[in-house]
């Protein structure tokens, strides 16, 4: 069992940023609207995530530490229609097998919270504790028992860059959730839940709040929305295009390139598109192969949108073109 967890950890937990990703997904699934992340030592010394979600009681905590102890699949049917972000029930046991993990959590119905502490997969402490409704998860000494993996990590700066990126990406899809990141005690991200998407994107990209909104759907099933930095504001290398498919950040260069291609004519020569593109496609089509094959759809759509994406055509916030 412990070995299985460590093997799974190899898949789920590649680096500190993958831990942050799994934990943020869990917090979002728990309905949190405020997520704070604290990092020390690039994530190898400490990753702490504090959320105000629905929390867990003692039984839930023990359950979530078991492999496939997910609360997100209730029957076979659910498997076909997964709407929550997590569904494998592997993240916490995997992370726990390669770190010193503690979970403190309290539900709304309970006066007291519960806390467990594990050391490389072995339970060392469990007791009631006072804490706010929600969950605090701490991961210390990531890969402390797997020196080979520890060695594989890059510089603190690089690892922090990946963490920063994960949080920024989630802040764009979960745009009504507050996100805070503290690195070695210093606050580096603070995005209030009251910021709208434009304000968030401007802050993340260090750009003025001047974006062209895009919103169209050809058939009701496929949809492209987004915010593109006003062409005259795009300076080479300063800002880039973030692409999401069904709420997930896409790193695939071909997709990003294809989207950029579709915007040719809209941008000035030599300038790279920058901003945010959100593609929505039916879940069963959400494979890279599918998306690549269907980039034509995106091309066509983006060409259409360029008709009105001209200076002077900037839509006021929240207003969409019929
Ligand atoms: P999965 O997300 O695939 O279900 P995880 O190992 O990531 O698997 O989490 C296991 C379970 O632990 C979740 O299904 C959920 O019930 C519970 N859990 C984890 N993190 C939190 C959290 N921050 N708040 C509430 N419940 C959580
Ligand atoms: Mg999960």
UniProtKB/TrEMBL annotation:
Q: Which UniProt keywords apply?
A: DNA damage, DNA repair
Example GO CC term: the record gives:
mismatch repair complex
Molecular function per GO: ATP binding; ATP hydrolysis activity; ATP-dependent DNA damage sensor activity; mismatched DNA binding
Q: Among its keywords, does the record have Repeat?
A: no
Domain (DNA mismatch repair protein S5): residue spans on this chain: 204-300
The keyword Transferase is assigned to this record: no
Q: Write down the SMART domains for this protein, in alphabetical order.
A: DNA_mis_repair
Which GO BP annotation is one of this protein's? mismatch repair
Q: Which domain of life is it from?
A: Bacteria
| InterPro entries for this protein | DNA_mismatch_repair_CS, DNA_mismatch_S5_2-like, HATPase_C_sf, MutL/Mlh/PMS, MutL/Mlh/Pms-like, Ribosomal_Su5_D2-typ_SF, Ribsml_uS5_D2-typ_fold_subgr
Which CDD domains does this UniProt record tie to the protein? HATPase_MutL-MLH-PMS-like
Q: Which PANTHER family match?
A: DNA MISMATCH REPAIR PROTEIN MLH, PMS, MUTL, DNA MISMATCH REPAIR PROTEIN MLH1
Q: Which family does it belong to?
A: Belongs to the DNA mismatch repair MutL/HexB family.
Q: What is this protein called?
A: DNA mismatch repair protein MutL
Native species of this protein? Desulfotalea psychrophila (strain LSv54 / DSM 12343)
């Amino acid at each position: 069992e412990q070995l299985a967890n460590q093997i799974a950890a190899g898949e789920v937990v590649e680096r500190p940023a993958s831990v942050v990703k799994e934990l943020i997904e869990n917090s979002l699934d728990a309905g949190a609207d405020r997520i704070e992340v604290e990092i020390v030592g690039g994530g190898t010394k400490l990753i702490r995530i504090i959320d105000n979600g629905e929390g867990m009681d003692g039984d839930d905590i023990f359950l979530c530490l078991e492999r496939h102890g997910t609360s997100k699949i209730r029957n076979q049917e659910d498997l076909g229609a997964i709407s929550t972000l997590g569904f494998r029930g592997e993240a916490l046991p995997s992370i726990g097998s390669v770190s010193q993990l503690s979970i403190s959590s309290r539900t709304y119905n309970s006066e007291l919270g519960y806390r467990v502490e594990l050391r490389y997969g072995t339970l060392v402490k469990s007791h009631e504790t006072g804490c706010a409704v929600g969950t605090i998860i701490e991961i210390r000494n990531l890969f402390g028992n797997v020196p080979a993996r520890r060695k594989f990590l890059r510089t603190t700066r690089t690892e922090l860059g990946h963490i920063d990126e994960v949080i920024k990406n989630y802040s764009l899809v979960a745009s009504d959730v507050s996100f805070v990141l503290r690195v070695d005690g210093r606050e580096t991200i603070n995005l209030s839940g009251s910021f709208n998407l434009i304000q968030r994107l401007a802050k993340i990209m260090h750009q003025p709040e001047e974006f062209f909104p895009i919103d169209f759907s050809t058939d009701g099933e496929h949809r492209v929305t987004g915010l593109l930095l006003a062409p005259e504001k795009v300076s080479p290398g300063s800002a880039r295009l973030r692409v999401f498919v069904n709420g997930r950040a896409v790193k695939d260069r071909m997709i990003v390139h294809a989207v950029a291609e579709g915007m040719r004519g809209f941008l000035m020569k030599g300038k790279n598109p920058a901003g945010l593109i959100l593609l929505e496609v039916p879940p069963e089509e959400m494979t890279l192969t599918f998306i690549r094959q269907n980039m034509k759809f995106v091309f066509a759509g983006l060409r259409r949108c360029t008709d009105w994406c001209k200076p002077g055509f900037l839509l006021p916030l929240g207003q969409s073109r019929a």
